[in-house]
Amino acid sequence: MLFTPVPASLVLSLVLLMPAVAHAEFTLSGQVMRVLGPDTIEVRGPGEVLYRVHLRGTAPGDPDHPAAFETETRLISELVGRHVTLTNVTGSGTQLEAVVHYGQEDFNRELIEDGMLRFDDETAEPGLVYDYTTAEDKARMRALGVWRPMEPRETPPPPALPAHPLAEPQGGWQFRPAGPGS
Fold first, then answer.
1. Which of 45, 96, 133, 182 shows the smallest number of beta carbons within 10 Å?
2. Contact 84/93 with Cβ under 8 angstroms?
3. Residue of 54, 74, 76 whose CA lies nearest to 115
4. What value does the mean pLDDT take over residues 94-119?
5. How high is the mean pLDDT of the chain?
6. Which range is least confidently modeled, 74-83, 96-105, 162-171?
């Protein structure tokens, strides 16, 4: 095998560009195929490729809270089968994070404002932090969704244990004096 020498400047420029390419944001359109969790959907994009898409800037609440089920139900009813546009897309391969739009609406912000999801500043697009924070504050003030107090669960009393054969009789022990006929 023969190796062709590569100028060091070309290698250096490629190395410097790699992180920028890996983290570049782009836009993608496709059809929502299914809901994978309260903040994750599967989208069929160009070329029939299936993408796992985390709703950027969002985080689910307590999985035991009724809002978690309500969120998944809403995602199914409003998104499955619909054509969406994903903006501010980051990630690689088929694992993406994006802001979901159908029509002109930022669906991520809508879910946060309705209390279906919490705001997650670690995955949020910097330009959307104010909008998402404001949306979360509205939901929190109105005690919607994940901000709604959970109903205390009634703990049923433990089941009655069967009587032990040596246990005290129901009427209690009765003392009978020992006598000549006992």
1. 182
2. no
3. 74
4. 93
5. 82
6. 162-171
Which of 11, 54, 57, 50 is closest to 33 using CA atoms?
50
Residue 18 has a CB neighbour count (10 Å cut-off) of 10
Q: Three-state SS string across 47-97, please? A: HHCEEEEEECCEECCCCCCHHHHHHHHHHHHHHCCCEEEEEEEEEECCEEE
User: Exposed (0-12), middle (13-18) or buried (19+): which is 146, by Cβ within 10 Å?
Assistant: buried
Alpha-carbon dihedral of residues 17, 90, 104, 50, nearest 10 degrees? 120
Tens digits of residue pLDDT in 83-98: 999 999 999 889 999 9
Pairing of the two strands 83-92 and 58-59: unpaired
**Residue 26 DSSP one-character state:** E
pLDDT of amino acid 174: 65
Q: Is the dihedral of CA 70, 129, 148, 156 positive or negative?
A: positive
Q: CB neighbours of 29 closer than 8 A, spacing ≥ 6?
A: 45, 46, 83, 84, 85, 86
Q: How far apart are CA 73 and CA 79, in angstroms?
A: 10
